[in-house]
Amino acid sequence: MSLRRRLLLYLLFCAPLVWGAALWVSADRARHEVNELFDTQIMRLARQVQATLYGPHASASAEVPAASGGDPGEADVRDMAVAVWDRDGNLLLSDREGVELPRRAEASDFVDLVLDGEPWRVYYLQSQGGEWLVAAGQKAEERDELVFSLTTSQLAPWLLVLPVLLLAMAWAVRQAMAPLTRLSAELAARGPDELQPLEQPRAPQELQPLLNAMNGLFRRIEAMLQRERRFTADAAHELRTPLAVLRAQWDVLSRAAGPAERAQAEERLGAGLERMDRLVTQMLALARLESSVEPARREPVDWRRVAEQAVGDMLPLAERRREELVCEWPADGAAPLPLSGDADLLAVLLRNLLDNALRYGPVGGTVRLLFGARELRVENEGAPLDAAQLARLGQRFYRPDGQAETGSGLGVSIVQRIAALHGLRLSYSLRADGRGTAARLSPTG
Amino acid sequence: MRLLVVEDDSQLGEALMLGLRQRGHAVDWFRDGAPADAALGGAPYDAMVLDLGLPGGDGIVWLKRWRGKGQALPVLILTARDGVRQRIAGLDAGADDYLIKPIALDELAARLRALQRRASGRAQSVWQHGMLEYDPAAKQVRWAGRVVELTGRELALLEALMTYPQRVLSKELLKDKLYDWSGGEPEGNALEVHIHHLRRKLAPAVVRTVRGLGYALGSCEPDSRPAA
Predict the structure, then answer these.
(1) Contact: B106, A251; criterion CB under 8 Å
(2) Is B128 at the interface with chain A, CB within 8 A?
(3) Which of A237, A248, A402 sits opposite B15 (nearest CB)?
(4) Fewer CB within 10 Å of terminal CB in chain B, N or C?
């Protein structure tokens, strides 16, 4: 349900309720006033009758003449009744309606009666000596009429202005909702890449948190898009050279003259394909990693199996470069770097670390994979990297100048990403003895 | 043509060198600007293929430096930088052409031929000198309309002579045009052997010997070939 409809419904429901309550209160007040007024009149009438009785001793069974003839105005005389009884209960005096009033010797106050099926209110007054009993009464209907007409006269203008009020309410709700409408119109009109912050200086206070949250979201999406765009641009750029290599190598192969030249050209093309394969694999791995927030699995990591897998994958490269691969475990038999995570991802991480260490270490050197209780290190005997190189390490596609080995420039980015997913931090430093570079993984906390 | 390739990527540099050699060019390949700079003074190159992202300084910087020193060698930039602004910067730095990786080697060779053609002031793609016609793209030579089969070195020699039809070319220059630095020094009389073959296959007068100086393109008129 729309907010506007909801607001209107609440108003439509609540307003009559409030009106009803107000009406009831005012009717109640009116009844109270009317009762007070009429009761006073009846009481005064009874007292006047009694007062006159003390004067000239009225004759028995006299009947007060009905005010007949003449214009009665709006008076309704028959709604009133008066009767007087003597000590013995003989009706001394009454008007036409008063005949019907019952004598109640013991009564001396207001009594609500039903005469001829109609409710009456009667006031009984005993004379001091008990000689007379005066009763003055009035039909209750009279009072009801008055209360009713008083109340309806109040209600009528309310009902008349109700449509106006409804219109005013609708207009007010619409006005109050205008910032929301503007906001949704602006959002609806936006293209998928229009992520500039929403600017609504006149937006009401209640909207500000929403606007702030949305602007924050826009900023995050924009940053993500920029990362993606940069990655795509970088990837396109980085794919050009290996592609150029493949085309040129293929061209050379297709023009090769003899079997020996042909075999050589095939070997080169093979190397070019391998390079492309590696680059694309790394790119896809990184792209997948970038989009994930959590490792797919979280299980206690068996580092021995992970290390076996990664080292096994790196053996051919180590062999080619005649480098030694050594794995060392904590001396005291402590559990190496306890961690729960995705063993496959961690194998990719180790493979990339070892790959870098092997490629950029000297031919014939040694690469060490060292496990500690709180860290994991990969060390080679390569020339230490300078500060500028260290700072750029981990930038996508960055490769220090003058590399004889081909590489994608993505390995460190991949390692950093996997490390971050597992709450680890990657840092590079000079090896402890200063004769090589060490990559160190340790918990962030 | 004798070509200079400056490309830091080992696989690409090697493939470019091999592919251009297969097309009959003498190619020297360097992985950085400094050795290329040294080589420029050491051999009569006809054109250069220049990569931009070089380890020891950007290719653009090298190119500007060379142009500043009056180096007029046609330069073709071959790079992965594909932005319009980068292309403009490359051409404004003095490049004669700007190619974006990846390219077909055939196209690269064709563009190098075009650069050479422009540098030598020719408009026609088929070079003509009297009865002699040379089509560098097809590597084809005709004498009086008849196709003559020449080897790669003979073609390169003829191309060098035809590039400067009015000039006497020293033996050293001709050797430099024919041989890059990959195969060591050519044998002492190799050049003379090729010239001998050219004269035999085309006409004795096609290469004129200028004693003490070198060789020049000779007369290629109908009467210069004795009636067989």
Answers:
(1) yes
(2) no
(3) A248
(4) C
Contact (CB<8Å) A244/B10:
no
DSSP string over A328-368: E--TT-PPSS--EE-HHHHHHHHHHHHHHHHHTSPTT-EEE
Picking from A34, A234, A219, the residue whose alpha carbon sits closest to that of residue A142 is A34
Residue span of the structural domain in which A228 resides: 209-291
- Kindly tell me if the per-residue pLDDT of B6 is higher than 50: yes
Q: In this structure, is residue A73 part of a structural domain?
A: no
Query: Which pLDDT value is given to residue A63?
Result: 52
Which chain B residues have a beta carbon less than 8 Å from that of A268? 11, 14-15
Which residue type does A171 have?
Answer: W
Instruction: Among A135, A156, A177, identify where a domain stops.
Output: A156
User: Which region, left, alpha or beta, applies to residue B170 given φ > 0 means left and ψ of -120 to 50 means alpha?
Assistant: beta
Q: Would you state the pLDDT for residue B222?
A: 67
CB contact under 8 A, B22 and A252: yes
The ipTM is 0.76
- Cβ proximity of A110 and A41 under 8 Å: no
Chain B residue with minimum CA distance to A235: B80
**Number of separate domains in chain A:** 3
Are both A274 and A354 inside the same structural domain? no
Structure tokens that stand for B43 in this block: 């051999």
Interface test with B, best of A229, A230, A232, A251 (most B CBs within 10 A): A251
Tens digits of residue pLDDT in A144-171:
888 888 888 888 888 888 888 888 888 8
Q: What domains appear along chain B, each with residue ranges and CATH number?
A: 2-119 (3.40.50.2300), 127-224 (1.10.10.10)
Same domain? For A241 and A265 the reply is: yes
Domain boundary (A269, A291, A313) is at A291
CATH for A234: 1.10.287.130
The reply to whether A416 and A330 lie within a common domain is: yes
Q: Does A405 touch chain B (CB under 8 A)?
A: no
**pLDDT band per the 50, 70, 90 thresholds, residue B227:** very low
Rounded to an integer, what distance in angstroms lies between the CA atom of residue B26 and that of residue B46?
10
Quote the pLDDT of residue A116.
79
The residues that bridge with A395 in the sheet, in sequence order, are A393
DSSP state of A65: P
Domain membership of residue A83 (yes or no) is yes
Q: Does A404 touch chain B (CB under 8 A)?
A: yes
Q: Write down how long chain A is.
A: 445
